[in-house]
Amino acid sequence: MSQLLEVSGVSVSFDGFKALNNLSFSIRNRELRAVIGPNGAGKTTFMDVVTGKTKPDEGRVLWGEPPISLLGKSESTIAMAGVGRKFQRPTVFEDQTVEANLMMALRKPRSPFAVLFFKPSAEDRDRVAEMAETIGLAQALTRKSGELSHGQKQWLEIGMLLAQDPQLLLVDEPAAGMTTAEREKTTDLLREAAKTRAVVVVEHDMEFVRRLGCKVTVLHEGSVLAEGSIDHVTKNENVIEVYLGR
Ligand SMILES: Nc1ncnc2c1ncn2[C@@H]1O[C@H](COP(=O)(O)OP(=O)(O)OP(=O)(O)O)[C@@H](O)[C@H]1O
């Protein structure tokens, strides 16, 4: 597996406070990675830097093979380069059906003309059906998205992001507000997604992270405190002190 994203020596300050402090780590192609750490550790700021929302004061963010710099690129350019981001709260079109939401998310020309006269092809319908199957909503295609449970809305939004086929999917606290059954299904979905792309999951729920069964990066005060398997990082004295032991 080759390198997909390399963050190196990245620092971000807000009014003199270092939200990221010489942060360095990398993600490989088709890798599932969990990022954990106490409140204020810099997890959101890391995602903001990768997606072009926040410009770092220093450091490098390299993407792809051969590597190109993502610094200075707009959020839309970075999204089109293959970085998808799922925010914590679901943002689906509630008065549209599951099928319509997925259809809108397919990679298509976005001019007003194209959208107005968009007629789904058989291939588009197949892709939507396949995506609905993947996210466990095949039986809910004709339902209004607003009627779905919180967990189902989260899966729908993950499906909408997957429909755009990103090479890297950043997912912020997917388990928040979910039932135990929904959490289990979400770990399965993310593990499945990571077979065809890299998936980085920011999460506080340690049981959820354990179920993901992947390498874990622990952030603290804007840099990497520890990295490795869940057993490795949960035994780390520093991690216990700043995060787990609280
Ligand atoms: N736009 C901003 N202006 C000022 N300070 C900010 C800004 N964004 C983040 N910070 C500060 O930077 C630090 C890192 O924040 P960040 O949101 O990245 O942490 P986090 O690890 O995502 O935390 P949480 O788990 O609570 O979401 C925090 O102390 C936060 O208050």
UniProtKB/TrEMBL annotation:
Keyword Transport: yes
Pfam families in the record: ABC_tran
SUPFAM superfamilies: P-loop containing nucleoside triphosphate hydrolases
Keyword tags: ATP-binding, Nucleotide-binding, Transport
Any coiled-coil regions, as ranges: none
Domain ABC transporter, first and last residues per copy: 5-246
Record PROSITE patterns: ABC_TRANSPORTER_2
A single cellular component GO annotation: plasma membrane
Record InterPro entries: ABC_AA/LPS_Transport, ABC_transporter-like_ATP-bd, ABC_transptr_urea_ATP-bd_UrtD, P-loop_NTPase
Molecular function per GO: ATP binding; ATP hydrolysis activity
NCBIfam families membership: urea_trans_UrtD (TIGR03411)
Stated name of the protein: Urea ABC transporter ATP-binding protein
